[in-house]
Design a protein that fits this description.
- There is one protein chain.
- This protein is α/β, with parallel strands linked by helices.
- The chain folds into two domains: 137 residues, Response regulator (Rossmann fold); 89 residues, Beta Barrel (OB fold (Dihydrolipoamide Acetyltransferase, E2P)).
- Helices cover 34% and strands 33% of the residues.
- It has eight helices and 15 strands.
- Strands 2-1-3-4-5 form a five-stranded parallel beta sheet, with helices on both faces. The protein has a five-stranded antiparallel beta sheet with strand order 10-9-8-12-11. The protein has a three-stranded antiparallel beta sheet with strand order 13-14-15.
- α1 links the parallel β1 and β2.
- α4 runs antiparallel to α6.
- The chain is elongated.
- The model has no long low-confidence stretch (mean pLDDT 89).
């Protein structure tokens, strides 16, 4: 028996998926969620084989929710028209249902999933999709992280700096620091280059937090932040800083 969860803030949309899913006795609907916060908890609790996930939801969107799942299940997206997302879906072969969708279209998507045997390929497709949509405007305004049992939404201007931490990146704000399972290259690619500069292979800095840049040793510098924190600046990092700061 396969387990499924519906995650959608629209009751009517959930009821339609529930109705169509009833024609598949081999798939058990174990939960329904009305937002991404509930979705994260439900996935951790039930460990479903597949989720039907809306993108545009309150609090956090579907992509942000997926980023918080360490081992995401297979996903069939249910969404209203989103040009950027649909281009990403088509590129990375992740199936999606464009609202309003028929029972025939639903069956085609679910049958496709049931016929697939490689969960590794499904998960790789989801990871590739998230990397692609990370550059969309809706995904570059904030960072969503898990901290303990809570979900924290961090607007980008509140980030003071980012630091590499093994397989994670430590995001430092005035309220504290948070770990996100991404790479420094990922953040360098999505952050606004007018506001953030990679000063060192292990650091990305919010340039508005810099009070001064001092010589350190040889060709290296150190950036002093408003908080007094000292951030190393490599030779190439210094060139990036000069460009961003216009000096």
């Amino acid at each position: 028996m396969k387990k499924a969860i519906i995650i959608d803030d629209e009751p009517l949309a959930r009821s339609i998926v529930r109705e169509y899913l009833a024609f598949y006795p081999q798939v058990e609907l174990v939960d329904e969620c009305s937002d991404g916060f509930q979705g994260v908890k439900s996935i951790q609790q039930h460990k479903p084989d597949i989720i039907f996930l809306d993108i545009q939801m309150p609090k956090i969107n579907g992509f942000e929710m997926l980023e918080l799942i360490d081992d995401p299940p297979a996903v069939i997206f249910t969404t209203a028209f989103d040009e950027y997302a649909i281009r990403a879906f088509e590129t990375h072969a992740v199936d999606y249902l464009l609202k309003p969708f028929s029972r025939e279209r639903f069956s085609k998507a679910l049958d496709k999933w049931l016929e697939q045997h490689s969960t590794t390929e499904q998960k790789a497709a989801t990871v590739s999709l998230l990397e692609s949509v990370a550059h969309s405007p809706s995904q570059t305004e904030r960072v969503v992280v898990k901290t303990g049992g809570r979900i924290k939404i961090i607007p980008l201007p509140e980030i003071q700096y980012l630091e590499a931490a093994d397989d994670y990146v430590r995001i430092v704000t005035a309220e504290g620091s948070y770990l996100k399972k991404k790479t420094m290259n990922y953040f360098e690619g999505i952050l606004d280059p007018k506001l953030f500069a990679r000063t060192h292979r292990s650091y990305i800095v919010n340039v508005q937090q810099i009070t001064r840049i001092d010589a350190y040793e040889k060709e290296n510098q150190v950036a002093i932040l408003t908080t007094g924190v000292k951030i190393p600046v490599s030779k190439s990092g210094y060139m990036k800083l000069k460009s961003v700061l216009g000096i």
